[in-house]
Amino acid sequence: MGFLNNLINGISLGSIYAVIALGYTLVYGIAKMLNFAHGDIIMVGGYVIFYSMTSFQINPYISVLLAVIACTVLGIVIEKIAYKPLRQATSLSVLITAIGVSYFLQNSALLLFGEKPVNFTSVVNIPSISLFDGQIVITGETIVAIIISILIVVGLSLFIKKTKSGRAMLAVSEDKDAAQLMGININRTISLTFAIGAGLAAIAGALLCSAYPTLQNTTGAMPGIKAFVAAVFGGIGSVPGAMIGGILIGVIEILGRAYISPQLSDAIVFAVLILVLIVKPTGLLGKKIREKV
Amino acid sequence: MSNKATLAKAKMLKPQTKQSFTTYIMVIAAFVIMMVLSSTGNVSSQIEGLLVPLCVYSILAVSLNLTVGILGELSLGQAGFMCVGAYASALFSIATNESITVAWIRFPLAILVGGICAAVFGILIGIPVLRLRGDYLAIVTLAFGEIIKNVFAALYVGIDSNGLHIALNQADMNLAEDGTEIIRGALGVKGVPQDSTFVIGFVLLMITLIISYNFINSRTGRAVKAIRDNAIAAESVGLNITKYKLITFALTAFLAGLAGALYSHNYATLQAAKFDYNMSILILVFVVLGGIGNIRGSVIAAIVLTLLPEVLRSINNYRMLIYSIVLIVMMICTSNEKARNLIISVFNWLKDQIIKLKNMIIKPKTKEVK
Predict the structure, then answer these.
(1) Which of A155, B85, B163, B261 has the CB geometry, 3.0–4.6 Å to B111, for a possible disulfide?
(2) Which residues are bridge partners to A116 per DSSP?
């Protein structure tokens, strides 16, 4: 029963990772950059929800909506100010800039909200389910996290396949120059990608802080990096891959914490990343990209 | 006559040699000034305490610059190599504390042990990692840094009459009565001999600089730069990419290990939590601000950015915020065509103004002469 409980916890955490990983995978697929600041947008979303719920007494669901709007705007602003001037730059410069943005968000939050962690009240008010005389408990947060992540994956897949903007995103990720020749506005498409990614980060922030109710300026950093591991595991650029990778990483982390060593759970997740990159660098569902000379 | 001869000789020096000698002279001058100031008692205890960390950070910045600037790959695991060097040298010092009582023999050996252990880790990590490129390489070095930190934070090592005991928690160690714990998990290592001095730090920094400059200007260094500029072209003229990448990576790790040894012997206690991702980023900030690929710049940036927050206490809270802005602005200014042109035009305008100002001041004098 203990194993089943751990498995459920792992899937719950993994669903949250999946939502974060979707943002990574979209941005990486289209802008070809590792958006280090993605994890910190989660933290910003968390603070928006926290303050709108405590200081302004706004309904939790509307708070989440506010956070999504705030983070979407933030995502677009970051893209316009920091990343757009570097479209033609080397990946080294872009990566350093992304690290700078991540640090900027973390330290602004530190100055604005203080370093003391705040207690986050869960936005979910669904009662938990007990099975087998209370031996297995599934919390409301777990149910919501799993359902929402499935909805997002299905919705996003449909968006990319069926809508014009979604197909434009697909085209840009395949070949930027050819897409431009076909009349696709590349800048708009990249902005849209960042907006969707940041909006998803806000939802992930709500789920993460509801499941693990402490919030401080570094809350998003570690889950962000682990979600990137998940995105690589599933195959970067693939939407279902992010979901599968996210859930696997979540399960590996929780099982590692329970059965190997609580201090080493992070190390185990990173070891998985290294193994994946050595054995199958394209991930589970990723496509192989051939290098042209 | 002799003056002219030396002048002619100076002109004959290669530009690389000139560059490296300027840096050596600069560092030596800074060292002499600090020594004179501290012997006359003009240095506050606060600055005195910063002298060894200044050397540590300078060495780290120079060594990271070899990977970032010369090899052109971003490594976010610098703190991990430093951690290996720090722990290895601290263990060596504690283990040999009784057998080698003379500090000036023990400490250089400890530093060497730290450097070699870090270099071995660098090679072990480098073999799988260097097959990757760009973003993947950066994230994997970050992952390795975190793994090293986490493993050291979870590690318990003790010694007793039965030999060495290694475990993942305190109870599993099964130490005998006479045993002593050396590494105590997250609490780290206690009782490291405080052998680090400013003089040793300075010597290590000079060694680092000499190694780095000679490496850059050597045949190997030129090969590494060729790989950075165009890997496919370099491979097609027969350069073994993996070999040269591995050499650079191992050298970076070795120098970071030296810095780690210096760092660990500066404080009595050593904790793995210190060597986190933030430390790696801090070093990266030094490299970026000093100029990617510019060794002298790394030293200057490391010194200025370590001293500045201590001297100006009021900006200490905003330190990291300023660093992050520095990273973003530096990258946009150096990589974006428009931003670069803007800066160049601003500089030209300033130059014109200065020349105008100069003319305004100098002109009356020339009139007097006439």
Answers:
(1) B261
(2) none
- Rounded to the nearest integer, the mean pLDDT of chain B is 83
Report whether pLDDT(B70) > 80: yes
Between chains, do A86 and B142 touch, taking CB under 8 Å as contact? no
> In the 8-state DSSP scheme, what is residue A236?
T
Whether ipTM tops 0.90, in short, is no
What domains, with CATH codes, occur in chain B? 15-317 (1.10.3470)
Dihedral pair phi/psi, residue B330, rounded to 5°: -60, -45
Q: Which residue of A has its CA nearest to B151?
A: A264
What are the structural domain ranges in chain A? 12-224
Contact B276, B149 (CB under 8 A): yes
CB atoms inside a 10 Å sphere around CB B319: 15
Whether A135 and A201 have beta carbons less than 8 Å apart is answered as no
Tokens of B28: 């030596």
**Chain A residues touching B336 at Cβ < 8 A:** 85-86, 89
pLDDT classification of A199: cutoffs 50, 70, 90? very high
Residue B210, CA distances (Å) to B22, B27, B146, B253 in order: 12, 12, 30, 16
Contact A107 B324 (CB under 8 A): yes
Residue B308 vs residues B267, B286, B311, B313: alpha-carbon distances, Å:
22, 13, 5, 8
**How many CB atoms neighbour CB A289 within 10 A?**
9
Residue carrying structure tokens 């060597």:
B275
- H/E run at residue A153: helix A140-162
Q: Which long-range contacts (CB under 8 A, 24 or more apart) does A143-151 make?
A: A144/A207, A144/A210, A145/A12, A145/A15, A145/A16, A145/A207, A145/A211, A146/A11, A146/A12, A146/A15, A148/A15, A148/A19, A148/A203, A148/A207, A149/A15, A149/A16, A149/A18, A149/A19, A149/A243, A149/A246, A150/A15, A150/A243
Count Cβ atoms below 10 Å from residue B134 Cβ, excluding itself. 18
What percentage of chain B carries pLDDT values higher than 70? 90
Nearest CA in chain A to B231: A293
